[in-house]
């Protein structure tokens, strides 16, 4: 297996790892208001997220950006929490198949901006893998491609489930959005409340 393939697999495993589900939760949050019929809008949103995390993943891995990992681990669940919260205000058009329907414009810069934060989280893991390795171009490229492949699979699964629930089982779309966003909001809130930095800043006892 080549170095590129090895890091591609590591990137894929990292974003699909259920033990590090914070990135999965964010992808779920930005996809919660869509189903398979909205795939074009989702591609644009995911591309914005990809652009954001690709920039900071590269800059941080190359050593141009250095942010305390503790702050990154706290900011990531806040991006999930805010995205899930915004979903509660999503409006369902009268005709969900209308070709002129567009996602609210603010979702794109939001995905881009939050992608910058998640990229810093990815870089912490990648830098730990790289150690003192001098040539990082192939590892960086392979890891990023692996992230994207895993991300696309997660997106497809989420949209397929939403399509099945709404179009086949006839669950009201607004109910589906609110239930899924509520679950994501609760999980993100739990991550924040159990974060050691947050507990220190708020005077709560730190987890032992």
From TrEMBL:
Cross-referenced Pfam families: HupE_UreJ_2 (PF13795)
Domain of life of the source: Bacteria
Transmembrane feature ranges: 20-37, 42-65, 71-89, 110-129, 149-169, 176-193
Keywords linked to the UniProt accession: Membrane, Transmembrane, Transmembrane helix
Signal peptide bounds: none
Protein name (Swiss-Prot/TrEMBL): HupE / UreJ protein
Organism of origin: Dyadobacter endophyticus
